[in-house]
Structure prediction request, 602 residues.
Amino acid sequence: MRFLDFERPIYEIEKKIEELKKLTREHPEFAEEIKTLEEQSNRIKVRIYSQLTEWQKVQLARHPDRPHAVDFINGMIDDFVELHGDRHYGDDPAIVGGIGKLEGLRLVVIGQEKGRSTNEKIRRNFGMPHPEGYRKARRLMELAEKFSLPVFTIVDTPGAYPGVGAEERGQSMAIAENLKVMLQLKTPLLTLIIGEGGSGGALGIAVADRVLAMQYSIYSVISPEGCASIIWRDGKLAPKAAEALRLTPEHLQRLGIVDEIIEEPLGGAHRDPETAIKSAKERVLYHLKELVVKDPEEVLRERRERYRRIGYIEEVALSS
Amino acid sequence: MLFRRKKKEIQAEKKDLPDGLWLKCKNCGEILYKTQLEKNLWVCPKCGYHMRITSRDYMSILLDDGKFEEEIAPGLRSGDPLEFPNYKEKLETYRKKTGLDDAALAGVGYLDGKKIVLFLTDFNFMGGSMGSAVGEKFYRAAQKAIELRVPLVALTASGGGARMHEGIISLMQMVKTSLACAELDEARIPYINVLTDPTMAGVMASFASLGDVIIAEPGALLGFTGPRVIKQTIGEELPPGFQRSEFLLEHGMVDGVVHRKELKATLSKILDVLRVPENGEG
Ligand SMILES: [Zn+2]
Prediction:
């Protein structure tokens, strides 16, 4: 298991527990010690995880062992049939899309997948979509509308891919068109942010009636590193930028961007992916069930109203 | 996400000649008289390089009489939703420097006698970046166009994309402005984009890409990710002309590249054909 610096004490005590457990068959007397260590481990976790800085939360959101979109799909969706390609240029493995059932509820699923092994990461382009990924997503959203199916999108991307081909094929246009389509789609949309919500690249599949976020996810207009290097000319000030950007779910909820935060198991989703995915499944199902019984026109009207309202403005008397 | 140019570089184009009678073209090095340049709409007569100009300059180029008949949402300013370090001070500084409330201007005016709503972003105000005020102003400009049933022309000079000082709230302005575009579309109001140097990131990936017709000034930098970041990411030199207007034209992303001197006449021709359908028509 890979661990972050601040997770080291947890990792070390868990390693000790593992070793003792291996020996319990021959040394049943260790059971008592294991119990003590486990209690100690829990206390350490509670302590560490109740004092996380914003920057540590960013690191958790990017943790290599966090469950990915594919894990959520496997853990939540029955009879999933993956559908490939944008019908214009290619298939983008950074976006997984398809149809399936969530506890019997038929739906369309679209998720950004970072990949886990080195080969998978390269194949998935580390979860950074190209225009064809956004166009595939759009095609599937339109398919959903046609058959009155809700759309469930899973966000986990550092951002849309910054590359030559992506620009040549209209990265901006692809994202802009998706935004418009999601504001015209007469079927429910639900977004779950599971890890990194990287700016326009995340937003390209994340205009929704409900936006849910895992406890240790982030959603931001720019990465803390990018923000720090532009504003303070120093990427090393990323921790300061992470504070300033208000990119964690509690802030996002206060700002009216996230509707609900899904609690993760103690120590984060990567310590117990199954439980994390199960919690997500319950909440996603709850919200989708609420949405699918509503008049789709009404759902769309409310979605538009939601985004119409977002903004912090002041109006001063004629200043010019 | 964001496009950045060195401050000195930006100011060298026009601002650095308060008293000078001439300046040097940044592209070809030609020494040009200011009066000559002004007459040529700040385009180098020798090489055709389009210098950056302000939203008010564009207003005077495009509108009959050079001004709005009615300004839309004057005095609209961004708040500071994140209490971002030094953002309030920064806004104040730019307000003083530019005389603008925020990075956008909008109003009702006439282009070759045709009534339109004109929306403009201004690069001199925090790189023309979009925060709450720019998003809201665009939305209201679109509403005005729908209400009056006149076309909307949006001219952008927004290198900054979504303004990071307002964080996620800026990102959501991409959605708000795209919503305005959806409403224009449904109301069958002609919507024309004019992309000028530079239009990037969150602005380019929302309302600046959603027009019925999209035209660009020559040589403008247009794209999603800034070239510096792309170069860093791929570790290779970028192809010549990458992300310039002509490159987008070649790749089918814009309808045409139009010289600043032809801009008004071209818009006039487009608006003459793409008219708001009469009530009940179609
Ligand atoms: Zn020149």
Summary: Chain B touches chain A through 68 residues (CB under 8 Å). Confidence is low (pLDDT under 50) at residues 1-12 of chain B. The pocket of zinc ion is lined by residues B 25, 27-28, 30, 44, 46-47, 49 (CB under 6 Å).
